[in-house]
Fold this sequence. Notes:
By secondary structure, this protein is mainly beta. The protein folds into three domains: 2-175, no CATH class; 179-236, no CATH class; 256-374, no CATH class. 7% of the residues lie in helices and 47% in strands. The chain contains four helices and 29 strands. The protein has a seven-stranded antiparallel sheet with strand order 2-9-10-11-12-15-16, with no helix packed on it. Strands 3-6-7-8-13-14 form a six-stranded antiparallel sheet, with no helix packed on it. A four-stranded antiparallel sheet has the order 20-19-18-21, covered by helices on one side. A hairpin with a 7-residue loop joins strand 7 (56-58) and strand 8. The chain starts with a strand and ends with a strand.
Amino acid sequence: MGVYSSNIIAPKGNSGMTLLSSHNDDSTVKFPDIGFDFFYNDVNCKTTININGNSWIGFTGATEQLKVNRRDAGADNIYYAKEIVNDKPVFRIRWEGHQSYSTWGTLNLVWEFILFDDSAMILIIEKIPNTGTNSFVNPELGTTTLTLESSRSYAFIPQAAQGKSYIIQEGSYIQTDIKYLMIDGNDVKNWDSVSLSYVKVSELPLTAEKFQTYGDDTYHKERTGLISTSPVLKIWSPLAEMIAPQITQTIKPKPIIVNMKEDILFSEAYIIDIVNAVVTLDNTGNGIITFIVSTDSGVTWKAWNGSSWVLVDITNMQDVKTKGMSVITLQGITEAQWTSLELLNKTIRFAWYMEVTSSVDVLKLKQIRVNYNTV
């Protein structure tokens, strides 16, 4: 378990490291057993990590999965070391070389790479000319283009088990014994894996002993079992100094039904009937929006199902979602079909169901325009 920090870390250099390869032009060489399980895309890579003189790493074999200024380069020396940081094993790689195979001894491309036993990684750039390809094959997300600079470090932090869906940020990563507890009012709670909810284990004040006895090894984003609207997450580590962790919680809005509070009136004598309805909206991603209509000021609601108008229960969110009209259906209703809605009092109002399935979805209804047929 570890935390991200925006702090840049410096390379350690090659002192005490084991030389794996020298004067490496285009050769791919494999590291020995790194000493601990390391998962990348569900594969345990402890004995399969490769590196090439053209400045790339393959986690699962001789495949270019991390490229650092990848081009026809040359590695003067490639090193590795098994190290212990905060009582945790790490495997450190150091690549020293140049952007062109013909300029041996000119070290203008130098970087280090650190692997942790929780599948996190850090790339430390000492020198980079940025004349080649910088990219990472990010499991579940596809190839990610990297923006790399000299004297910078970059944390690769998996967001899914077994080394998948990495977030890549400039900064660093520290792995240590971290415990989590939730403060819910005056109660101290931890996550119960049986009831799948937070349960009370103590009362304030917090002590190191309570963290050691009751603390969770991982932070649970769920709020089941919490009563306070503003619970407080507490984090503890035995380190005298620890990088302040950053936890980001992304909230997805709940589905909602929006109901117009006033009718649209078309009682003027020169208006004969409705010709069509036109919807203007932004829908980027997988947002869902469906429409229903009322001709009696919201007492009853209906939707066109392709052959007739059917009743919809506006108090039942699932009924509105499944029976409501899509934008295509609503805009495709003909003049004759609108007339069959029995608009005797010449009033109409709309309601619509809205749902986003991801935090990155954009769903904004801008306008519903009703076009009339006139004398």
